[in-house]
Write a structure and sequence with these properties.
The chain is α+β, with helices and mostly antiparallel strands. It has one domain (11-121). The chain has one helix and three strands. The radius of gyration is 30 Å and the shape is rod-shaped.
Length: 123
């Protein structure tokens, strides 16, 4: 009497292995893509925050040389892809002993805006 031993894998086992490996690789690639996307978004937010703070400092520096009744000029060039807007518009110097509230808004390449409120005053 001769005994038959199972040797090798069946087609079903091979297909199941390929499917499991395929799902695992797909999940890994999706996780890497999400990580890269989140990293880029975080980098853009950090740059937008830096642009906003630098513009605020440039605005305050320009206002320090203000004379009541005149205007001040902010000298600042944001990096490519970033825009800065100020509300209310206008660069009139505030009167002595008063402050002027400005709202700065920076928009980056992802079109997400960050805002900051600052007060300027004439020395």
């Amino acid at each position: 009497m001769r005994l038959h031993k199972d040797q090798g894998e069946t087609l079903v086992e091979t297909i199941l292995t390929v499917v499991i490996i395929g799902v695992a690789v797909t999940a890994l690639v999706a996780a890497l893509a999400t990580t890269a996307s989140a990293g880029a978004a975080h980098r853009n937010n950090v740059v937008a925050d830096t642009v906003m703070r630098n513009y605020a400092e440039a605005t305050k520096a320009a206002a320090r040389t203000c004379v009541t009744g005149q205007t001040y000029a902010v000298v600042f060039q944001p990096p490519t892809g970033y825009t800065v807007s100020v509300a209310p518009t206008g660069t009139a110097c505030p009167t002595v002993l008063t402050t002027r509230l400005l709202t700065l808004s920076v928009t980056g390449p992802t079109k997400v805006a960050q805002t900051m409120a600052i007060r300027i005053r004439t020395p």
